[in-house]
């Protein structure tokens, strides 16, 4: 698999009540559904979308991810662990029928290296969006928590990311459609102020661009976007409810993008 290929990764959050949440993470045809004891595996199109994911089978239950209890992991933590598998082999414990299997998940080219524990943990409850304070291109600090009471679309992107350029039109459309209900924060990672200013001059975005620094720093790590080694996948979009909880997250890009419909439906209460 090409290291720079963009993956379609979807993470859907559906809150059944204020106390319970049914969550799904989708990577191509691989669908992970959260249960009390872990994450249940299903291949919705009949086969794995990546050779490295064929170690999993429909019906498997991931009870340990990265040596941690998967039953206590939220969707963003799972997303971060699967992203980490591009830079290191991630250990999984899988219950298959009545047997437990130890699996090494490696999603990059070549043979899998020995499994190693994470050098920095992914911080996320997957119910409340990790807070951050980042500067605009005019060095005005913006704090996520200060946006409570409005919907916030947190979009990790970069000027060097071609799919991100395609998605910029969608971010603009959403910001224009919901000027009162929605704040769009585009968190530029691993980028330069020069390139960002040129992007602003050319595209004239109506949303707010923040400088989020490298992919091995917060908040990229907190949202499972970056890795301690500085790798990661873009774009990643996280929709935050007015109460600060995460309503929807989407990683990667495909055309047509589902982002606009997901945001429209969420704000409309569908």
Question: Your description of this structure?
Answer:
The protein is α+β, with helices and mostly antiparallel strands and 270 residues long. The protein folds into two domains: 14-120, Pdz3 Domain, CATH 2.30.42; 128-270, Glutaredoxin (3-Layer(aba) Sandwich), CATH 3.40.30. Helix content is 17%, strand content 30%. It contains four helices and 15 strands. The strands form two sheets. Strands 1, 2, 3, 4, 5, 6, 7, 8, 11, 12, 13, 14 and 15 form a 13-stranded mixed β-sheet that branches. A two-stranded antiparallel ribbon has the order 9-10. A hairpin with a 2-residue loop joins strand 2 and strand 3 (30-35). Helix 2 runs parallel beside helix 4 (259-268). The longest helix has 16 residues, at 162-177. The termini are far apart.
Write the layout of secondary structure elements.
Layout: E1 9-15, E2 21-27, E3 30-35, E4 38-43, E5 61-65, E6 68-69, H1 75-84, E7 90-96, E8 99-105, E9 133-135, E10 141-143, E11 151-157, H2 162-177, E12 182-188, H3 193-203, E13 208-211, E14 236-240, E15 246-251, H4 259-268
Parallel strand pairs: 11-12, 12-13
Antiparallel strand pairs: 1-2, 1-15, 2-3, 3-4, 4-5, 5-6, 5-7, 7-8, 9-10, 11-14, 14-15
Helix pairs in contact: 2-4
Rg measurement, Å: 18 Å
The shape is globular
H/E topology pattern: EEEEEEHEEEEEHEHEEEH
The CATH architecture term of the largest domain is 3-Layer(aba) Sandwich
Overall structural domain count: 2
Q: How many distinct beta strands?
A: 15
Q: State which percent range the strand residues make up.
A: 25-35%
SS-based class:
alpha+beta
Helix content: 10-25%
- Can you count the helices? 4
Q: How many angstroms does the end-to-end distance come to?
A: 37 Å
> Can you summarize the main beta sheet?
13 strands, mixed
* CATH domain topology of the largest domain: Glutaredoxin
User: Assembly state here?
Assistant: single chain
Report the uncertain regions: 1-21, 119-125
CATH class of the largest domain: Alpha Beta
Average pLDDT figure: 81
């Amino acid at each position: 698999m090409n290291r720079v290929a963009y993956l379609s990764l979807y993470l859907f959050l559906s809150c059944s009540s204020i106390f319970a949440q049914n969550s799904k993470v989708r990577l191509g045809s691989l669908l992970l559904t959260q249960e009390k004891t872990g994450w249940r595996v299903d291949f919705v199109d009949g086969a794995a979308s990546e050779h490295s994911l064929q170690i999993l089978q429909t019906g498997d239950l991931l009870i340990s991810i990265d040596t941690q209890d998967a039953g206590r992991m939220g969707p963003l933590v799972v997303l971060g662990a699967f992203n980490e598998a591009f830079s290191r082999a991630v250990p999984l414990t899988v219950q298959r029928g009545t047997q437990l299997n130890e699996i090494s998940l490696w999603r990059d080219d070549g043979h899998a290296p020995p499994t190693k524990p994470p050098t920095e943990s992914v911080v996320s409850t997957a119910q409340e969006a990790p807070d951050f304070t980042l500067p605009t291109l005019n060095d005005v600090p913006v704090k996520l928590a200060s946006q409570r009471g409005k919907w916030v679309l947190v979009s990790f992107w970069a000027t060097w990311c071609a799919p991100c350029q395609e998605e910029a039109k969608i971010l603009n459309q959403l910001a224009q459609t919901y000027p009162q209900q929605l704040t769009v924060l585009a968190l530029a990672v691993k980028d330069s102020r020069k390139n960002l200013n040129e992007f602003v001059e050319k595209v004239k975005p109506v949303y707010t661009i923040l400088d989020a620094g490298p992919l091995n720093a917060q908040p990229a790590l907190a949202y499972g976007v970056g890795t301690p080694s500085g790798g990661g996948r873009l774009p990643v979009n996280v929709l935050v409810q007015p109460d600060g909880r995460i309503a929807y997250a989407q990683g990667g890009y495909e055309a047509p993008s589902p982002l606009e419909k997901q945001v429209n439906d969420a704000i409309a209460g569908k």
